[in-house]
Amino acid sequence: MPNGIIIIDKPRDWTSMDVCAKLRGIFREKRVGHAGTLDPMATGVLPVFIGRATRAVEFASESEKEYLAEIKLGVVTNTQDTTGEILEKRPVSVTREELEGALAHFRGNILQIPPMYSAIKRDGKKLYELARAGKEVERPPRPVTIHALEAGEQTGPDTYTLRVRCSKGTYVRTLCHDIGQALGCGGCMSALRRTGAAGFTLADAVTLEAVQAAPDPAALLRPVDGCFYGYDAVEITGRALSRARNGNPFPCPAGVPDGVYRFYGPGGEFLLLGRCQAGTATTIKSFFEV
C-alpha cells in the first residue's frame, strides 16, 4: 500500500480537494489529505499525504508558509482578490517608498479579520455560503504572525509582487486588502503562488501531469519522517520496540535526554514521534502499519 508525502505544484483553478481526489484515483488509496488549503486561483506548493502518512497532516498544517503574491492597488473586491466583484475603483498615486513604508505596519504579530469569502464556519455555515446569499456577519479578528513581508518588482502601473512568510491561518488576500486600505487607495490580490510549506519548496514539487505520466507514481512519494527532521533520531530494539508497537510507554535508550524524538526500528523503519521524559517514552503519533 502506498505511504508517503508527495509535493504537488497545484495548478490554477483547481481546489486543494480536487488535487486530493485526483491522487486518490492515481494511487488507488482512500487515505489522502493535504496540509494547508490553497484557493483555486493560487498555485504552488501543496503537500499531500498518502496512506498512513495522513497521520502527519496535523503537524504539517501548523507550519509556516511562504508566498509570492501580487497586489493590485486601486481596486477593492468582495472576495479581496481579482476573482470577485469589483466594489470600488480608486485613483492610485502610491510610490514604491510609500508601499514599503506601509508594509512595515504589517510585520510581526497582527490581528486580521477573516474575509467573508472563506471556509470559516459561523453557526454551522461556512462564511462563503453566507456571502453568496448576500449576508455579511461580524468576524472577530484573529491573531496571525507575518514573519517576513517585502515588496518585489513592479509588474504593472499599479501592481507589485510581495514576498510573504507567515503563520498558519494567514489570509494573504486579506493582507493585500488591508495594505491597500492603509495606503488609502484600496487593493486586492491579483495572483498568488505558494513557494514553501511544511519545510518543502517548489524545488520539491511535481506537477499532476508528471504524477499521471510516471510508470510508478509511488516512486515519487517521500518518507513521512521528512516532516520531522527537526527532531533527533533514536533507534529502539527488543522490549522497547515491542512495547512501542503495542502502543505502551517504553524505556528510552540510555543517555537520551528528555525531549521529542523520531523513533526507528532496527531496520530503519520510522515508527513514531515520541517524547522521552525521566527515562520513559510515550507516543505522540505512530506511523507504522498495524
Structure in words:
The structure is a single chain. The chain is of the alpha+beta class and 290 residues long. The chain has 3 domains: 4-63 and 199-226, Pseudouridine synthase (2-Layer Sandwich), CATH 3.30.2350.10; 65-195, Pseudouridine synthase (2-Layer Sandwich), CATH 3.30.2350; 231-286, Archaeosine Trna-guanine Transglycosylase, Chain: A, domain 4. Helix content is 19%, strand content 36%. It is built from 7 helices and 18 strands. It has helices at residues 16-27, 57-60, 96-103, 127-132, 172-183, 208-213, 238-245, and strands spanning 4-10, 32-34, 43-50, 65-73, 75-77, 86-89, 108-112, 121-122, 125-126, 142-156, 159-166, 187-197, 200-201, 233-235, 250-251, 259-264, 270-277, 280-286. Strands 1, 2, 3, 4, 7, 10, 11, 12 and 13 form a 9-stranded mixed beta sheet that branches. The protein has a 5-stranded mixed beta sheet with strand order 14-16-17-18-15, with helices on one face. Strand 10 and strand 11 form a beta hairpin. The protein is elongated. The mean pLDDT is 94.
Brief summary:
With 290 residues, the protein is of the alpha+beta class.
Name its key features:
alpha+beta, Pseudouridine synthase, Archaeosine Trna-guanine Transglycosylase, Chain: A, domain 4, 3 domains, nine-stranded mixed β-sheet, 7 helices, 18 strands
Average pLDDT level: 94
Q: Kindly report the name of the CATH homologous superfamily of the largest domain.
A: Pseudouridine synthase
* Rg of Cα set: 22 Å
Strand element count: 18
CATH topology of the largest domain: Pseudouridine synthase
Count of helices? 7
What amount of the residues lies in strands?
35-45%
Gap from first CA to last CA? 12 Å
What best-fitting shape do the alpha-carbon axes yield?
elongated
Q: What is the subunit arrangement here?
A: single chain
- The helix/strand class is alpha+beta
CATH class of the largest domain: Alpha Beta
Domain module tally? 3
Give the helix level as a range of percent. 10-25%
The helix/strand series, from N terminus to C terminus, equals EHEEHEEEHEEEHEEHEEHEHEEEE
Q: Can you tell me the CATH architecture of the largest domain?
A: 2-Layer Sandwich
Main β-sheet description? 9 strands, mixed
Detail the poorly predicted runs: none
